Amino acid sequence: MIVIRLKGGLGNQFFEYALERRLTYFNHAQFKLDISAYRTDNSRIRTYGLHHFNIVENIATDEDLKTLGIKEERALKRILSKALERRKPIYKRRRINEQVLLGFHPEILEITQDAYLDGYWQSEKYFLEIAKVIRAEFTPRDKMDTVNEEMASEMAGASSISLHIRRGDYVADPTINRIHGTCSLDYYSKCIDEVSQMIQDPHFYVFSDDIQWARTNLNLEHPVTFIDNNNQENDFKDLYLMTKCKHHIIANSSFSWWGAWLAENKDKIVFAPSRWFNDPRPGDKDLIPESWRRV
């Protein structure tokens, strides 16, 4: 049994699930999702969201976690277990924490035995082998409401470009701001100028967790629609709409990363920020697909 700890927003949950799905796909091993992080007081601004999609949803129980030694009752036993685990190769450990230096670590894909994984795993290299499976499972489980279906239809008939502005905790939380920061207006201006020269009659669809800020600060000389009919509780609908756009300008956010990656247009143009983190230590060399343009 392989269990992966889900944490963060919807985009992070997608990355975490995608890795586990790849680890168990070829050997048909049992896998489960640990969603306990969303049951604590610290999870107030984040909720478990994968249930909105056509995933294989097996939720880990407390007994499952105890079986893997994640919920040890005695502190001394837990400490000794961790010390012994650190002596093993990563792919043979019972508990596997992502390294501080982010990026693709191919040895993770060698895991075949019981394991508990804790990390963000932000690289398509972890799941490219089963890309078709991931795309199919990350489709909404239920039919969209009329407003969003009409918007999706409009996007399909236009030279639609999704533009995502991420603010929220990136601005409000000083710690998160130091790590991530936000994309500058200069970044968006450059992307808008470039894509406008490449695409005839562009129509921009703006997504943001602070849509009023986007209305006030974003200067666009082309047709623009600000998507404001969905809220944080149904952000999966915004993600669905992003996938219906033909081209994309993403923020340094896993949410719009997936909106672009899941998009159906095989000729899509995707712009991504050249610097993903304010703090360069985590690294992002394996995060952006090679075909995307970094600005």
Tell me what the structure shows.
By secondary structure, the chain is an alpha/beta fold. The protein starts with a strand and ends with a strand. The chain is built from 11 helices and 10 strands. The chain has 2 domains: 2-133; 143-294, Rossmann fold (3-Layer(aba) Sandwich). The model has no long low-confidence stretch (mean pLDDT 88). 34% of the residues lie in helices and 14% in strands. It has a 6-stranded parallel sheet, sandwiched between helices. Strands 2-1-4-3 form a 4-stranded parallel sheet, with helices on one face. Strand 6, helix 9 and strand 7 form a beta-alpha-beta unit.
Percent range for helical residues?
25-40%
Total beta strands: 10
Poorly predicted ranges: none
Strand count, sense and barrel status of the largest sheet are: 6 strands, parallel
Summed up, the helix count is 11
The CA-CA distance between the termini, in Å, is: 41 Å
Indicate the structural class: alpha/beta
Q: What is the typical, i.e. mean, pLDDT?
A: 88
Categorize the overall geometry. Answer: globular
Number of domains: 2
According to CATH, what is the topology of the largest domain? Rossmann fold
- Give the SSE string: EHEHHEEHHEHHHEHEHEHEE
Strand content: 5-15%
Instruction: From the alpha carbons, calculate the radius of gyration and give it in angstroms.
Output: 20 Å
The first-level CATH class of the largest domain is given as Alpha Beta
State the strand order across the main sheet: 7-6-5-8-9-10
Which architecture of the largest domain would the CATH scheme give at its second level?
3-Layer(aba) Sandwich
